[in-house]
Every structure is written in structure tokens, then in C-alpha cells.
Amino acid sequence: MRFRANPRSILKLEMEIIQSPHEVQKRVNHWRCEGKSIGFVPTMGALHEGHLSLARAARRDCDVVVASVFVNPTQFGTNEDLNKYPRPLERDCDLLRQCGCDLVFTPEEKDLYFQDGSGAQSWVEVEILGEVWEGTVRPGHLRGVATVVAKLFHIVRPSRAYFGEKDYQQLKVIERLARDLFFDVEIVPIETVRENDGLALSSRNAYLVSDERQAAANISRALFHGVELAKNGERDVARLRAEMQRVCGSQPLIALQYLAIVDAQTLAPLDKISDAPARILIAARVGQTRLIDNAGIN
Fold first, then answer.
1. pLDDT digit string, tens, across residues 88-129
2. CB atoms within 10 A of CB 67
3. Which is the catalytic residue, given 22, 30, 48, 51?
4. All domains of the chain in start order, with CATH
5. Could you tell me how far CA 61 lies from the centroid of its own chain?
6. Confidence (pTM)
7. Which of 49, 116, 133, 140 has the highest count of CB atoms within 10 angstroms of its CB?
8. Are strands 278-286 and 289-297 parallel, antiparallel or unpaired?
9. 251 CB contacts (<8 Å, ≥6 apart)?
10. Of the candidates 123, 103, 22, 91, which has an alpha carbon nearest to the alpha carbon of residue 58?
11. Paired sense of beta strands 38-43 and 160-164, if any
């Protein structure tokens, strides 16, 4: 499968676009036999600068870059936005080509979840890390993420896989998955890319109307306010949370789902900030759009 090249924008003319998992396996096995390192960037498409920063990092680090574009149905819950999730595949492939990708894997649902009438039967679940925060608010979501990532790792067999820190809990779940299942892959975290006003880039930002978009910036303002207070010596988590809630609460369009300060590795909630790394996690609805963000302390 190939799209017509746009000669003004494409830097890498020979990028392949392959739907079949077995064809991707053949291609990457050939590269591995040649001793080439493979960088992998899994995405759900609707690419923005955050995704492209992952692709550029993979291009810098690795001999070959593979990206996937797949809107994974098993990580969407009932009444979530699966059907309206944007799917601009041709645009996404053009952007990945500009970043120097060698191959884009574009499976359909039937290619990864065999639709023989029995439904998906094999699941990967990371307990504890996957059961808190997003695991509570979106039951089954992280099981869907872990399952599809395990499938993609088996197909692509990457040397390094690149994930954004914006989905911090997802990153921790995937790190644990790779360790527990002995995947021979290095998980490379990439810093969150933000708009000029601090809002974390997300494909869902496109759902925000004008007043919602203005309100959404208060999520990152609250986050950075908490980070700054911690840097200036505030150690009490209750006071930090109260201050961040105050900033979010100044925008009535923001409805917090959770605002937590947790251990950066275990995601367990903290009462006091210590010298160990901590993370602030925020999830909120702005109008009908659900947004998440996070930032590190220490």
C-alpha cells in the first residue's frame, strides 16, 4: 500500500506502508539479520508535534525507523470517542515520511484481533500499576494498551521503542510489561511537547472549542504551580493539591477527575514530598473533552 508522493514535502521517497503483520515481520527480520537497530514509534495517528518528536528521536538513534498507526479499539471504553477519533492516515504517513521513517505499519482491527466470531481471547494485563488512576477511571483501558503494545513488540521486534511522557502511567505500564515479559527492547521516554501557553499536545485538543481551549491551559498552569511550590520547599501534599485545585477551579469548564502526587515509579499516592522522584498526575474534562497531564518533582 502506497500513497502518492508529495514532492514538496517528502524527504524520504522510499518509505514503505504495510498493513499485513506478517509482511512487517518479514521486513524487520531482514533488517535484524543485517545487524540494524530498529527504532519503533507506536501511535494511534492524528499526529502532532509530540508524535513527531518521537519519530525524530528514533531517526537520530537507530538505523531503521518503524512507526505504527492504529486506533486500538480495546483501549476505548463504552461511550468513549472511538468512532469519532480522527484518522487522517494519508497526512500521518506524509508527516512520518518527512521525519525519515522507513516503514509505517497500518494494520486494521481484523489484522491484530482475529475476527472469527470468538472475539479477542488473549490479553496482557499489568497489575497494580494498571489498576490505579487511569485504571480506575477508565476500566480496561490499560489492559487494551498493554495487549496491543505486546502484539506490536512481537511483530516489530524493536531495539528501542519511543513513548511520550504525557501518558505517564501508560509509560510506566509499558516499562513494566517489557521487563516482566522479557522483551529485548529499550523503552525510551520523550519529554512532553507543549503549546506556547503550556497545554500538552494531544490529538484530543482538536475537540476543544474556543472557550474550552482557553480554559484547558489552566490544567498545565496548575501543574507548573505545584512544581514551583515544591521546588520552593513545600513538602505537604495536601497543601500542594489544594493550591493546584484552586488554579483549576478558577475555570468552571474544568472538571477534575483526579489530581494526585505519586511516587514516580510505583504511582502510589504520597503524603509528603521526599528526596525521591515524585510525579503530579492530572486528569480532567474540559467540556466533553478528557485531557491528562503530568510533571515531575525532584
1. 999 999 999 999 999 999 999 999 998 665 566 899 999 999
2. 31
3. 51
4. 16-190 (3.40.50.620), 203-297 (3.30.1300.10)
5. 20
6. 0.93
7. 133
8. antiparallel
9. 215, 218
10. 103
11. parallel
